[in-house]
Amino acid sequence: MEDLDRFKNREFPLERLNIVRDIFIFSCYTGLSYIDVKQLRLDQITRGDDGNLWIFIKGQKTETPCHIPLLDEAKVILDRYKNHRICRWR
Question: What is the pTM of this model?
Answer without folding.
Answer: 0.84
